[in-house]
Amino acid sequence: MVLAAQKLNSEINIINKDFAGTRKLKQNQEIVQYLNDSTLRIWYNDQDEDYETHWHNAIEIIMPVEEWYEVTISEEKFHITPGEILIIPSSSLHSLHAPSKGARFIFLFDLHFLEKLSGFTSISTILGKPIVIKKETFLPVYDDIYDLLIQMRTEYFSDSDFADIMIYSHLLELFSLIGRYRISEMKLSNTRIYKQKEYIDKFNEVLEYIDEHYMENLCLESIAYKAGFSKFHFSRLFKQYTNFTFNEYLTHRRIKAASDLLAMPDLSITEVSLAVGFASISTFNRIFRQVNKCTPSEYRRKHNPLHRL
Questions:
Q1: Which DSSP helix (H) or strand (E) runs through 104?
Q2: DSSP single-letter state for residue 75
Q3: Who contacts 95 (Cβ-Cβ below 8 Å, separation ≥6)?
Q4: 78 versus 29: which is more confidently predicted?
Q5: What pLDDT is recorded for position 276?
Q6: Residue 237 belongs to what H/E stretch?
Q7: Which helix (H) or strand (E) holds 125?
Q8: What is the mean pLDDT of the chain?
Q9: Pairing status of strand 69-73 against strand 51-54
């Protein structure tokens, strides 16, 4: 235990040596301070400071090591304690509340360059909503997930030439573990294993199709027919597989694409709206505000492309 504590103290000194000691917020957007202009940061936070509602392009993973930590994501409150892990989706509005004493590790990753990887679409649906990882709910994979985070932390502290590559390889392994576990927990009509795999492959194809055609006039009935299911059977399985309804996922995909396009100053808000598949600018403005708690114009003003890969 003494050696472990000494090792942790040594690691903390290394990780925080390039960190200013505070998180920079600008008009509700956090400007993530990545290490040496990379696309990741891991830091030891023992501050008792609260952070008001904000968002950032990075996915955030919080792992308390002493005392609790409280996070509110889109009005849903999460109270996490040592041994628990919270994954906060990128671009989601959230606030942070710390106890008077305590500590936690915070992992921040920009995932934009991973989006073109085959199979990442199905992972991104899982990462579209907050995930709380507890030993009792993720028992078969919990130890592996926890160990991967420790390995990422160790690589980051080591300051080696290939630390970023190793950390992202561990992160992808972590995502795979979560994805496979979630799939194994699905109740796909009590079908046999080979049939479940067939369903999973089919829904991966559905997600890839939506990603390629979200700007078109897609409807539940046509997608269900293309997948070979009835509308009601497809709806139930889609919800189980993605944790979204079909319409929720389509909206999620369109708003995500719109957020990226708003970084291009030569496109008008109307052009962005039409490019991602919204029939009217009023509908686009209303839904965008519901999702991001700001208008597209406000989002564009706050958006800082210098911190995007």
A1: strand 103-109
A2: T
A3: 50, 51, 52, 53, 54, 71, 72
A4: 78
A5: 95
A6: helix 231-242
A7: helix 120-126
A8: 83
A9: unpaired
Question: Would you call 294 helix, strand, or coil by DSSP?
Answer: coil
Contact 65/34 with Cβ under 8 angstroms? no
Integer Cα distance of 74 and 256 in angstroms: 16
- What are the distances in angstroms from CA 161 to CA 5, 15, 37, 166? 26, 15, 14, 10
What is the radius of gyration, based on Cα positions, of the chain? 20
User: Which tokens sit at 216?
Assistant: 């078109």
Res. 308: pLDDT tops 80:
no
Q: What is the pLDDT of residues 17-72, one digit of tens each?
A: 555 556 667 667 787 877 667 889 998 888 898 988 888 889 999 999 999 999 99
Q: How far, in Å, CA of 250 to CA of 76, rounded?
A: 22
- Is the CB of residue 235 less than 8 Å from the CB of residue 227? no
Tell me what pLDDT residue 20 has. 57
Q: What are the tokens at 134?
A: 């507890």
Q: What is the pLDDT of residue 19?
A: 58
pTM: 0.76
Residue type, 280: S
Residue indicated by tokens 């290939």: 162
Q: How far is CA 255 from the centre of its chain?
A: 15
Tokens of 232: 């009601």
Q: Show Cβ contacts of residue 212 under 8 Å, excluding neighbours closer than 6 positions.
A: none
Contact 106, 60 (CB under 8 A): yes
Residues 6+ apart with CB under 8 A from 256: 91
**Sequence-separated (6 or more) residues with CB below 8 Å from residue 252:** 128, 244, 291
6 has a pLDDT exceeding 50: no
